[in-house]
Each structure stands twice: as structure tokens, then as C-alpha cells.
Hints:
Layout lengths: L20 E5 L4 E4 L4 E3 L4 E2 L5 E2 L15 H16 L1
Antiparallel strand pairs: 1-2, 2-3, 3-4, 4-5
Zinc ion (ZN) binds next to loops.
Amino acid sequence: MCPHSPPCPDAKDPDREAARTIISHPEQGWSLLCNGIVVFEDTGELLPDGETIAPHRPTDMTTPAAKITPAVRRSTEGTGQSSAA
Ligand SMILES: [Zn+2]
């Protein structure tokens, strides 16, 4: 699946996230890597064989108070959807 040379890490390799992004949908919160992995904005992953990887990295490295950020983000997305409808 990977068209690059040298080839990117395989979906089963520990450094699989180092593969290049071939499709990016930040508005939907996911990207497709050239090794077939779908990476979500919360760092969760969907592997080509259907296996899922739970979110495993903090998405906001600033302060502990940043824990409120996801709720703020969700309310912002909701506003966007209602205005689009
Ligand atoms: Zn590649």
C-alpha cells in the first residue's frame, strides 16, 4: 500500500505512526496513513486488520487545567453543526 521509498513503517511496527499521511480530514478528526492506519485526533488508531488502538497520548500538553479543553471543543463542534444545518 505504501508507495514511498524507502517504505514507511508497517502497520504492525512500533513506529507505525511515522508513516506518511495520504488522506487528512481534520474537520472529521481523522487521517489515513500510507500503511493503512487511520489515526484519530485523540491519538486513537484503527489498524488495517480492524484492530483498534486506544488513545495513548495527551492531546494537550500545556497544563493540567487543559482537561476542560475536550468539553469546550465538543460544544464548539456542536455549534458548527447546528449552524450548518
Ligand atoms: Zn509510505
